[in-house]
Every structure is written in C-alpha cells, then in structure tokens.
Amino acid sequence: MRSRFSPTKLLRLLPLTVLLLSACNLNQINTQGSGSNNDAQWQERQQALKKISQYETRGAFAYIEQSHKVYARFYWQDRDEDRYRLLLTNPLGTTELDLNVMPSVIEVTDNKGKKYYSDDPVEMIYQLTGMVIPLKNLRAWLIGLPGDATIFELDAHHLLKSVTWPAPEGDWIITYQAYDSNITPNLPQRLELRQGDRLIKLKMDNWDIQQ
After folding, report:
1. Tens digit of pLDDT for each residue in 82-101?
2. End-to-end CA distance of the chain, in Å?
C-alpha cells in the first residue's frame, strides 16, 4: 500500500568527517575573472552541454541550516526532465534516502525500506527530512547551465560562475568554485547553493555522460 508523508524525520545521517568539500584538485579550473553572457564561446558551450542526453555523478553532499546539518555521500542519475534519481548514503554506505522520479510516479525510500509516493518531490523531501532542495533547476545547475535562471555570471573561461534564481522564500545563489578540466565539455567539480542561512555543498568526484 502506498504511504503518504510521515511527520517523523527519516534521516539520521552521521557526520562524515572525511568529506573534503573544499579540497583542491590538480585537474580543476578555478572560476575567476569575468566573461560576457552572450559571447560566442558561451553560446558554443551551452550547445555542447545541452547535447548531454544522460549523465551520472557521485560525490560528497552537505546540507547546513542553523542547527540542522546533514553530511552524506550522494549519487545523481539523470535520464530526462521527469526521470532522475537522487541517492544519499551514510558513512557506512547504508541508504538513507533514495528518490526516484519517473514519468508516472515519484517514489522515496527511507532508511528502513519504507516507500512514500507524491507528485511533488521537493515537498516530499522537505516533509520527510526537513531539507529544501531545488530539484527542478538542480538538473541543469549540476552540469553548469543556468536552467530557468536569467541572472547569471560567467568567468574568464566562459564557464558559469554564479546563478541567481528568484524564489518566494528568497533567492537561490549558486556559486561554482571549480570545474574538472579532464572532461569535455568541462563539468563542475565543486558548487554551493545558498538561500538565506540555508547552504548546500556538492563536490563531484566523477562524471559519466552520454551525448
């Protein structure tokens, strides 16, 4: 039988002290300087990124909001606008949250294997965990596209440097801290999403893309 939201928070993630969200990488490109939003290199880069039909990435995840802190490993699998997956695991490798968005159903499995269903994945995650994650645009932000945002800044390498996304609860500010130069096109390696005192940090360890 399908379960609805439970008021009890399902995540009890242990602190993951081995997360090095600010660690340097010899292959990274740091976002510095400025570039034009409508120059030819940016237009070419957008076209290259939009050709990515499917992608997977995994790495370190941190959610910080006042006294609410979550540290985890994450896995993101993106197949289409209405077909993607977000998996969070604790330091022991045990599943804590598994979100599966599919055309006909949105399903979340908690750390006890209990399944929940809804038509709103953002609200579902909030009700179950207390975390606010802007999933709709996160699909684009992860690979370095502005998504629905019209306010953004480029760096000197014509890579996305920052994005501002208006929301009723306050603007989301996305900051790109480094890109992986070993991937063509170059993809983000570290980024932060901030909304007021709410902060999400992502560090991508590797990428698997299909064009």
Report:
1. 899 999 999 888 999 999 99
2. 39
Taking Cα atoms as reference points, which of 106, 11, 113 lies closest to residue 62? Answer: 11
Which residues on neighbouring strands pair with residue 29, listed in sequence order? Answer: 179
pLDDT value of residue 35: 54
Question: Where are the strands (E) in the chain, listed by range?
Answer: 28-30, 54-65, 68-80, 83-89, 95-101, 106-110, 115-118, 151-154, 160-165, 172-180, 187-195, 198-210
- The residues with which 194 forms a beta bridge, in sequence order, are 173, 199
For 108-160, what is each residue's pLDDT tens digit?
Answer: 998 888 999 999 999 999 998 999 999 989 999 999 999 999 899 999 889 99
In this prediction the pTM is 0.83
For residue 12, how many C-alpha atoms fall within 13 Å in the half-sphere facing its CB? 4
Q: Are the C-beta atoms of residues 78 and 54 closer than 8 Å to each other?
A: yes
Contact between 152 and 162 (Cβ < 8 Å): yes
How far apart are the C-alpha atoms of 25 and 46, rounded to whole Å? 25
Q: Which residues contact 178 (CB under 8 A, 6 or more apart)?
A: 25, 28, 29, 30, 31, 188, 189, 190
The residue among 73, 58, 82 whose CA lies nearest residue 18 is 73
